[in-house]
Design brief:
Elements lengths: L12 H44 L2 H13 L2
Helix pairs in contact: 1-2
């Protein structure tokens, strides 16, 4: 009959896995917040552009109004 040798190995990767999971969760949350902020800014700028186009009477009117605003005339 063969004898088998057993060794006790302390599993220290459990703590590292927990820390990695928390770090991964925080990174995912930060990415979601940054992405949402970018989306909100993009939608706001698009709405401002459309509003400017409507008020000025179209793209040519918007360009003219922009040049008047920049030059101070």
């Amino acid at each position: 009959m063969k004898t088998t040798e057993t060794t006790n190995v302390k599993n220290s990767s459990r703590t590292h896995t927990s820390e990695a999971t928390v770090s991964n969760t925080m990174s995912t949350a930060a990415l979601g917040v940054a992405g949402s902020a970018g989306l909100a800014i993009g939608l706001w700028s698009f709405a401002a552009l459309v509003g400017g186009l409507v008020v000025s009477g179209g793209p040519i009117g918007l360009a003219g109004e922009y040049l008047r605003a920049v030059s101070g005339i």
